[in-house]
Amino acid sequence: MSTLHTVPRMPGGLPFLGHALQFQRRPLAFVQALRERGDVVEFRVGPQRAFAVNRPDLINDILVAQAKRFEKGRMFDEAKVLVGEGIFTSEGDYHLSQRRLVQSVFHRNQLERYVPEIQRYAETTIGRWVESPRLPINRACFAHTLGAISSMLFGQAADERLLAGIQQEFPIILDGLLRRTAAPAQLMNTLPTPANRRFDKAVANMRRSIEHYIAGYDPVRAPGGLLSILTDEKNGLTGKQIYDEVATILLAGTESTADALSWACYMIASHDEVQSALQEEADQIMTSPQVSYGDLARLPVMQRVINEVLRLFPSTWVLTREPVEDVELGGYRIPARSMVIFSVRALHRDPLIYPDPDAFLPDRWLALEQGPSTERRQAFIPFGAGIRGCIGEQLARAELGVFLAVMCRNVTVRTIPGEPQPDVAATIMPVPTTINLSVKRRDN
Ligand code: HEM
After folding, report:
1. CA 30 to chain centre
2. Of 149, 169, 187, 428, which one is least surrounded by beta carbons within 10 A?
3. DSSP codes of every residue in 33-88
4. Whether residue 99 has its Cβ less than 6 Å from ligand 1
5. CB of 110 closer than 6 A to ligand 1?
6. How far apart are CA 233 and CA 241, in angstroms?
7. What span, in angstroms and rounded, lies between the C-alpha atoms of 263 and 269?
8. Are 145 and 254 in contact (CB under 8 A)?
9. Residue 438 has pLDDT above 90, yes or no
10. pLDDT greater than 60 at residue 429
């Protein structure tokens, strides 16, 4: 190893607890404070040494160049109670073989097939939204996304129980995962505290809903989808492995896409000039009763709006990793089996890269698109990167693009005067949970 720098330490750690309380109670402020201290900063979660990595090229090193030296770490170990060894959480050769197995449903030729389906589904949803004076946008986007993903990938409609399960239990589970990752001792996650009991109950309910959904699968009615691949005897998966992959895809694909969609609807509703530009673009491109995957590239204003939403509200705002051996990152030594964290949200709101970082400015992407592509790629990672990057990125982008284009072609969305608005600068809530919008048919 070359000459190493000394890693700055975060002050304010307590005996035994380290910085666990700050990380648990005010995670965003804590992560921001870590960022202000340097490119790599050491802190402690209980007895465990932890390192926050704050520079885009070093985060890229973790995700791409040195990816083989990192496992996914504590947050993902905690998630195993719900998704077992699915491809989000598994490691090494097993992860690769499972990723290859499910990859085929995300191929480009499949996306060609999904786009008309997404369009039909979007038209039905917008048909339901039309003339809503007060639409709870988060719930509506959740129901839409879950329905679209389950019929597209699994060839089977999502039942009410699954929808209720994901909608009610998933926020509790996500909140619990961060709290458990920051717990000073893992033993604390097994104590019968109210928060742990709430978490365990949410996991048990969620698990039952997904098992019920899998049990309802009929291979004759829905051949060729993900469930048919997973249940094909020649792939030799056990019942547990099938559950793990279905739960992984459902949970990784639904919440994240629904969050992005909800925020996009809210941002469009609250920026008239953006909505007008999108409507004009949709009027020109969405003329055929059946759009194609290629048409998405002809919606540049939409692509900028989607990028800006994903920049401001990345659904996984903080991620963990764990080096399997001592690693050098930009001249800093990170010891094996320490906890490594990086914040996608903080990276996406770095004022040096994105001036006026809390503002919703889709046109900033015009300039960024002209800039150096490596820097842009490293500073914009809503879908992660490398071998653990999002398998559903293109599908999610197609879902967002087609849905929003159908929406802009047919209706105008507006915020409702007097209703509470989210604090865009401060929120880390992935979803604008309490936001209602009005939806009106456009006068064409
Ligand atoms: C806007 C929507 C989405 C966002 C922002 C998003 C974000 C991400 C991110 C950041 C990761 C990497 C996590 C890490 O490196 O630790 C990831 C992985 C993953 N995503 Fe997505 N995702 C989205 C949509 C989807 C969809 C639609 C699906 C599937 C239907 C999906 C399935 C997965 C899976 C299975 C992984 C794990 C990949 C692996 O480890 O090999 N995601 N996603």
Report:
1. 21
2. 187
3. HHHHT-SEEEEEETTEEEEEE--HHHHHIIIIITGGGEE--HHHHHHHHHHTTSTT
4. yes
5. no
6. 13
7. 10
8. yes
9. yes
10. no
- Segment 150-209, tens digit of pLDDT: 888 888 778 888 888 888 888 888 888 888 888 887 778 888 899 999 999 999 998 999
Q: Measure 382 CA to ligand 1 centroid, in angstroms.
A: 9
pLDDT tens-digit profile of 91-108? 999 999 999 999 988 988
Which amino acid is located at 372 in the chain?
A: P
Query: Ligand 1 mean position to 252 CA, how many Å?
Result: 6
**pLDDT at residue number 428:** 60
Residue 64 in contact with ligand 1 by CB distance below 6 A: no
Helices assigned H by DSSP within 334-392: 344-348, 364-370, 373-379
**Residue type at 404?**
L
* Residue 4 predicted with pLDDT over 60: yes
**Is residue 213 in contact with ligand 1, taking CB distance under 6 Å?**
no
Mutate to test the pocket of ligand 1, among 145, 256, 381, 394 (most ligand atoms within 8 A of CB): 256
Ligand 1 atom having least distance to the Cα of 381:
10
**Alpha-carbon separation of residue 280 from 36, 260, 308, 439 (angstroms):** 42, 22, 19, 18
- Please work out whether the CB of residue 90 comes within 6 Å of at least one atom of ligand 1: no
For residues 183 and 225, what is the distance between their CA atoms, to the nearest angstrom?
Answer: 39
Report which of 177, 184, 182, 193 is spatially closest to residue 24, judged by C-alpha positions: 182
- Predicted confidence (pLDDT) per residue in 350-376, tens digit: 998 999 999 999 999 998 888 778 888
At position 185, the amino acid (one-letter code) is A
Distances in Å between the Cα of 292 and the Cα atoms of 297, 305, 403 are 10, 20, 13
